[in-house]
Structures are given as C-alpha cells and as structure tokens.
Amino acid sequence: MTHLLSVNGISKAFGGNQVLKSVTFDLQKGEILGLLGPNGSGKSTLLNAISGFTAVDSGTVTVGDKRIDKMPPHKIISAGIARTFQLPAMPAKMTVMEVVMTAGTRHHGLWDGLLSLPSGRQAEKEDHQKASGLLETLLLTKVRDLPAAALSGGQKKLLGIACALMGDPAILMLDEPMAGVHPNLRQELAETLKTLSRTGISLIIIEHDMHFIKSLCERCIVLDRGHIVASCHPDELSKNQDVVDAYLGRGSRALKEAV
Ligand SMILES: Nc1ncnc2c1ncn2[C@@H]1O[C@H](COP(=O)(O)OP(=O)(O)OP(=O)(O)O)[C@@H](O)[C@H]1O
Q: What is the pLDDT of residues 43-59, one digit of tens each?
C-alpha cells in the first residue's frame, strides 16, 4: 500500500485544556483506520484538525507531499480530504437529491449556467447521475425527493456520506457513522465502505461499535487524553493494557497487579 496521509506531532489546546498532545500517525492508500478512544479523548478534535475546522498549535499534516495544516477547510477538500459530522445538520427546505447535488464540487461557469449552455447542461447531467448512483449505494433512493431535514438520524448520516463522496475524495473521515443507523443497514454500510476502500479511497472512522470496527479495520489507533496509546489490529485491543486503562481507568492496572 502507498503512504498517503501523514500527521506529525499535532498538538491543540483549548485554553488550559490540552486536548491533543503531539499526535503522530500515517494512513496508507486504501486503508480503513479505526480512530478509537473514550469520550473526550480528542477524536473529533483530531478530525477537525486534519480537515481544517480547528487550527492546530503545532505539528504538520501532509497529503502526499503537500502540507495542508495551514489551509482553510475548502482547500483541504480540494486536496482530497472529505469528512462527515457526528450530528449532521440538514437544510430545512432542500430535498435529499438537492442536498447531494449542492455538495458536488464541479464548478460550472457563470455564463454556462445563466445561459444554459450545453457544457453547463452536460456537467449538471453528469452530477445528477453521480448523485443518483451515490443515493442508491447509500440506500437513500426511496427518500430522494423528501426534505433532507425530515430524514431519521441514521439516514442523515448516510446522506452526509453521499455528500462527502460527491467530491471524489482520496480520504474520507467518518465521525461515528453507525450511531443512529438501523441495525439492518449496518452490515450494508460496512460492505459499502469496504467497496470504497477497494477502489483506493482511504478511510478514517471514529466509531464506538466494536463489531463494526472489527469487521472493517485492519488497524486502529487509540487516543487517551490526547495521546495515541495504541496502534494495532482490532483483535489486539483487549490485550493491550494501555487501551484497557484508557477505557476502564488506571485502577484496572492496579487491580490486575494486586490480584
Ligand atoms: N471548540 C472547543 N472549545 C473548547 N473545548 C473543546 C472544543 N472542542 C472540543 N473541546 C474539548 O476537547 C476535549 C475533547 O473533545 P472531543 O470532542 O475531541 O472528544 P471525543 O474523543 O471526540 O469525544 P466523544 O467520543 O464524546 O465524541 C473535550 O474536553 C472537549 O470539551
């Protein structure tokens, strides 16, 4: 696999709260990386830092050989990194299809659009086909004409993924994609993500559902209070004392040593 994303020594504090402490990891092309850690350990902040929504205090982020850590979010999207949010907000008056179309990064010329030139119409037709395909992949075809705001929490998550994929990202970062998704759809979503990775897209997934993580990821990194304490196969997690401590507290080590 080819090396794609490098995060080197990223640190971030909010006031006196040091949330990320020199976080370093790499992501390979086509890899599905799990980003784990207890509540408040810094996972969303790390995604925000990579995607430019949060300015970092120090450290670098590179995609290929391009530094992106000082770029605004829209430039980072152009550099090939897309993301979804834990609680996606949807516009009240747009349909599902309209929301996906809006997420297309194809920029039609002003005159193409205003004058309805053939080049503009062709580009819009291609975007429409792409959006339809993504809605089908993400099992949203039946609701494509409904207001996006009326979707269930799980469907909004899937719509967020469709929007992120409209820009043909090289790296897709998902913040708790399974939360709120109906159990019947979970396996299908896992299969969809595996298919994406086979096409060469790399994924970083924050998720608390370990069954989902184990079915998808070859490697996980675990954050504990802003430090990466483990980078391993998901099957190794339960044997890693630092991971156990992160989730159960330091007392678990003391308890183990005492017995
Ligand atoms: N914009 C902000 N301003 C101030 N503090 C923040 C901000 N964003 C995050 N934090 C703090 O950073 C810490 C880590 O939060 P973060 O959301 O990154 O954790 P998390 O691992 O994603 O948690 P969860 O699993 O609960 O979503 C928390 O203490 C949080 O209060």
A: 999 999 999 999 999 99
